[in-house]
Amino acid sequence: MPFIFIFLISLLVVLFAIPSIITVSFRKRLFDDPSESRKVHKRIVPNFGGIAIFTGFLFSCSLFIPAHLLPEANILMAGGLILFMIGLKDDLIGVNPGMKFAAQFLSALIIAMVANIRISDLHGILGIYDMPYYASISLTAIFIVGVVNAFNLIDGIDGLAGSLGIIFSLFYAVLFYNAGELGWSYLSIALTGALIGFLFFNFTPAKIFMGDSGSLLLGFVAAVLSIKFIEVSSLHDVKVSAIHIPNGIALIFSVLIIPIFDTLRVFTLRIIRKTSPFKADSNHLHHRLLFLGMSHIQATLVLSVVNVMFIIMALSLQDMDGTQLISLMALTVLTMNGLLSLHIDRYKKSLLSRETIPTLPVLNKEHIEPAFNKERFAQEVLNKITEN
Asked: Where is Mg(2+) annotated to bind (predicted)?
C-alpha cells in the first residue's frame, strides 16, 4: 500500500505543478534557447520541469518514508539540493563549467564521506576486491560526477532522459524491495511517479523540458542508487524472480549503459578531433537516430528498448564472471554502434545519389542554369532532415 501512495503523490504533485510552471515561464519569458545550432528544437519551450520533478520527489519521500527505513535520506537530499540549485541557476542565467563541476564533486563527497555510501569493493572486477578508503572515496566521486554528466548530456530530445530514468528507477524499486531495503525501494518508486508525471508534458511536442535542474538531479539519484545497490547486493541474496544476482556491478552497468556509452563515445571523438571534450555538439546517439529520419518518440523508444535488452542480457548471464559479462556487454554495444555508423554512411550515400539535374531549355548564356552542385544539394537535404 505505501508504494501506491508514494507513487501517486509524487505523480500528482508533478501533474499539478507543471501547468503553473509553464504559465509563469511564458509570462516571465523564461525559455530554452532554440537558436543554438546543436538544438533539435526550433520552438520556444520552458525548461524548468526539474522544479516539478524535484518537488514531487522530495514531497513524497518526506511524507511517506520513515527515518528508520532510510537514515541517509537527509544527506541524500542535501546532495541532491546542491545539484538542483546549480542546475536551476544554469537554466536561468548560465553557470561557469568549473562551478558546475565543483558542485558535482561537492555532492559526490557528501554522499561518499558523510552518508558513507561508496564503492568499497569491486567484487573481483579486474581482480579488485576491497579498496583502501581514499581510493574508494575517489572512485565514488568520479562515478557520481560521471553519471551526473552522462544524464545531463543524454537529455537532448523529447522523452529520452525521462524514459531512461523511469527504467532505472522502476528496476531499482524492484531490486531493493527484493533485498528487503524498503526505504530505498520507496525512494525509487517516488522518482518513478515524478518522471511519469513529467513525461505527460515532455513527449512530442514537448510543452516543457526538465532542464539542467532535472537532468543533474536525475543523474545524481541514478548514481547513488547504483552505488547503494552494489553494497546491498554483497550483503543480501538479491533475486529477480528466480534469478540470483551475484554480479551487482555488471547489472548496474547494463542499467546505465546508454548514457555512459554515449558520454564516453562523444568525449572520445571530441578528443580525437582535438576539440574540448566539454564542447557541445550534435553527435550524440539520439542525434544520429534523428539524422536517419526518426521522430523524437521513435528515437526515444529505440534507445529505451536497447537499454531494457541490456538489462535482460545482464540478468540472463549472471552465472558469468563479472569482468567477462561487462566485457561482453561493452563489445555488444560497440558492435551495435558500428552497425549504426555503417547504416548512416549508406544513408548519406543514398542522399547523394538522389540528385536530379534540371533540364530547362537553353536560350542563350544568360538563361543557362548554374552547374548542379552535388555537395550543396546533399547538405541542404541533411539540414532539412535535421530541422524536422
From this structure: 152, 212
Spans of all domains in the chain: 10-343
Please name the amino acid found at residue 11.
L
User: Cβ contacts of residue 111 below 8 Å, gap of 6+?
Assistant: 75, 76, 79, 117, 118, 140, 144, 224, 227
Short-list 344, 334, 108, CA closest to 221: 108
Calpha distance 325→331 (Å, rounded): 10
pTM exceeding the 0.85 threshold for the entire prediction: yes
Give yes or no for a contact between 277 and 270, defined as CB atoms under 8 angstroms apart.
yes
Dump the DSSP string for 14-31: HHHHHHHHHHHHHHTT--
Tell me how far apart the alpha carbons of residues 209 and 158 are, in angstroms, rounded to a whole number: 8
> Which residue, 43, 61, 47, 60, is CA-closest to 18?
47
- Helices then strands, counting H and E runs in the chain, come out as 14, 2
Residues tagged in the binding site annotation: 152, 212
Give the pLDDT score at 385: 47
- Asked if 189 and 173 touch (Cβ cutoff 8 Å), the reply is yes
- Per the listing, cell 508514494 goes with 6
The whole-number average pLDDT for the span 358-365 is 42
User: Which pLDDT score is estimated for 236?
Assistant: 66
Angle at 144 between CA 141 and CA 145, to 5 degrees: 85
Give the Cα separation of 21 and 82 in Å (integer): 21
| Nearest partner of 38 among 155, 118, 148, judged by Cα | 155
What per-residue string of b and e applies to 121-160 under the rule 16 or more CB within 10 Å gives b? bbbebeeeeebeeeebbbbbbebbbbbbbbbbbbbbbbbb
DSSP labels, 314-355? HHHTTTS-HHHHHHHHHHHHHHHHHHHHHHHHHHHHHHHTT-
Which segments are annotated as binding site for Mg(2+)? Answer: 152, 212
Is the previous residue joined to 34 through a cis bond, with omega within 30 degrees of 0?
no
